[in-house]
Design goal:
The protein is of the alpha/beta class. It is 45% helix and 16% strand. The chain starts with a strand and ends with a helix.
Length: 427
């Protein structure tokens, strides 16, 4: 049974079960990464056999396998995936940045150029569920950014990848796919092996071993984020339908036993009705055992004094997904400062964003929405600035630069300017 609290009765850090838990995965992951770095493909084949039951001579998915997947998947589902991809593409196209140049001062040219990453790695989970949506969400922004090559890894249980995953990769534009999962896949992408090319950035969700591996290789490569269990926070008032609110909470609870679903409301009636609905709906779910653990151990109903306070609570929690499930959601939008993705009104369930609407579903968790953002085109670019001065332009400011450098005790910095001033037009 889900627990109810008054806002004053609970710590914010406890709401999404954010206590730091020590795990024993760090040492195991470090060992796997070192093995992959040293032994390359040979290590990968061992781990594929050990963890996925797959004896693989060739780690890469062939063109024939990709083509066969397109034939195997229901055309209606392919059409849905293509429509979702179009929506995702249209949204992320608006995020593209452009170079700029400033020439406002005589003899001075300043600017910034946008440079796509050379190679990105997309990790797609393949454990308890199949996630073609992750393929689309993580690949399409990289393609829009102009990444030269996109490498995807995903576990292949028994040597086979779900054909829907391969179809999504085809639609999104993945260049190469490898039958590798877990920490070993992260290691292959970070260090490179005989078969798997080294990438510049690794994105995509995974289990505790994948998250730890991303954490350990960060610095050698870039990563998107260290994602925690999935979260949803719903703001609801007395006009809400309890059956719908409970269904939305369970849409996240079914992800994982550690997933969190929170309702914040100023209505005692809604709180009690949602509690009852959760008890009715959970046994009906195919993943009822997972949802039950999530609801009982990691989920909560919080009673606020008003909807204004409810918004304040949401800002303090900074949830991954925030549903504003009320009739006038835009009245509160300006006050919402911290949330990964915001779903407005009674007809915008979080699942709409997971699959179809267009905004990205790779989102900051564990309160990191206070300072970070959803995956976007920006994650697959870097920026370089450039500076050009003529002799006359440098002469105008040279002595100021020398003075600045000397103030910091860096005489060689100043000398690099003063020597040019002394030589004048002889350069």
């Amino acid at each position: 049974m889900i627990k109810q609290y008054r806002y004053a009765e609970i710590s914010i850090d406890d709401i999404f079960h954010r206590t730091e838990e020590k795990t024993d995965v760090a040492d195991a992951v470090a060992e796997i990464l070192a093995d992959v770095r040293k032994n390359g493909d040979e290590a990968l084949r061992r781990y594929c056999e050990r963890f996925d039951g797959a004896k693989l001579d060739v780690l890469e998915v062939s063109a024939e396998e990709r083509a066969a997947a397109m034939e195997a998947v229901d055309p209606e589902l392919i059409a849905i995936l293509k429509e979702a991809a179009a929506n995702i593409r249209a949204f992320h196209e608006k995020q593209k940045r452009t170079d700029f140049v400033i020439t406002e001062k005589d003899g001075v040219v300043l600017g910034q150029k946008i440079i796509p990453l050379d190679r990105a790695g997309i990790y797609v989970p393949g454990g308890t569920a199949c996630y073609p949506s992750t393929v689309l969400m993580d690949t399409i922004p990289a393609k829009i950014a102009g990444v030269r090559e996109i490498i995807m890894t995903t576990p292949a249980k028994g040597g086979k990848i779900n054909p829907v995953i391969l179809v999504a990769a085809e639609i999104a534009g993945v260049d190469r796919i490898f039958k590798i999962g877990g920490a070993q896949a992260v290691g292959a992408l970070a260090y490179g092996t005989e078969s798997v090319p080294r990438v510049d950035k690794i994105v995509g969700p995974g289990n505790a071993f994948v998250a730890e591996a991303k954490k350990q290789v960060f610095g050698r490569v870039s990563i998107d984020m260290i994602a925690g269990p999935s979260e949803i926070l719903i703001l609801g008032d007395d006009t809400c339908d309890a059956e719908i609110v409970a269904a939305d909470m369970l849409s996240q609870a079914e992800h994982d036993t550690m997933a969190s679903a929170v309702l914040v409301t100023d209505s005692t009636r809604l709180a009690d009705a949602v509690s009852a609905e959760l008890e009715r709906q959970i046994p009906l779910l195919p993943r009822a055992e997972i949802a039950r653990a999530s609801i009982d151990n990691c989920s909560k109903i919080i009673l606020a004094e008003s909807m204004t306070q409810a918004v304040d609570i949401a800002n303090e929690i900074a949830p991954e997904h925030l549903e504003v499930c009320i009739d006038n959601p835009f009245a509160y939008l300006a006050q919402i400062r911290h949330a990964g993705s915001i779903f407005l009104g009674k007809h915008a369930p979080e699942a709409l964003g997971d699959y179809f609407a267009g905004p990205n579903h790779t989102l900051p968790t564990s309160g990191t929405a206070r300072f970070s953002s959803p995956l976007s085109v920006d994650d697959f670019i870097k920026k370089s600035s450039f500076t050009y001065y003529t002799q006359q332009a440098l002469e105008q400011v040279g002595e100021k630069i020398v003075r600045f450098a000397e103030e910091e005790g860096l005489q060689a910095h100043g000398k690099s300017v003063s020597v040019r001033l002394e030589k004048g037009g002889t350069l």
